């Protein structure tokens, strides 16, 4: 969350006095797909607003109502499969409560035959960000990123 707070601070510095709450909320949503409660509190404090003002803008505007679907793709190529990608896929599925290709969930879990980064496998992509050398023991960093988008 510190990264998004830094991004908000930088955004506000660049925009200076021309920024309104609606602009900031759109910026945050474009970066992470949603506006979590702790980020709402941060924005309110940073912009010297009441939290209720932030909530009101979010509730009134339909553009902030939907969460963006999170895309998670696990490599199913032979190199990554030999390194445990299918076991990792199973753990992600169980941890997030989603099945492969289940479009009705906020997380869309799928496989891809190859990311063309075989020497860095197991490879997993989360909303366009590629994670290399993922193992069962390092899967936590990928799950943190997925949960960040929730």
From TrEMBL:
It comes from the Bacteria. GO terms for molecular function: iron-sulfur cluster binding; metal ion binding. Keywords: Iron, Iron-sulfur, Metal-binding. PANTHER family: BIFURCATING [FEFE] HYDROGENASE GAMMA SUBUNIT, NADH-QUINONE OXIDOREDUCTASE, E SUBUNIT. This is NADH:ubiquinone oxidoreductase 24 kD subunit-like protein. It comes from Sebaldella termitidis (strain ATCC 33386 / NCTC 11300).
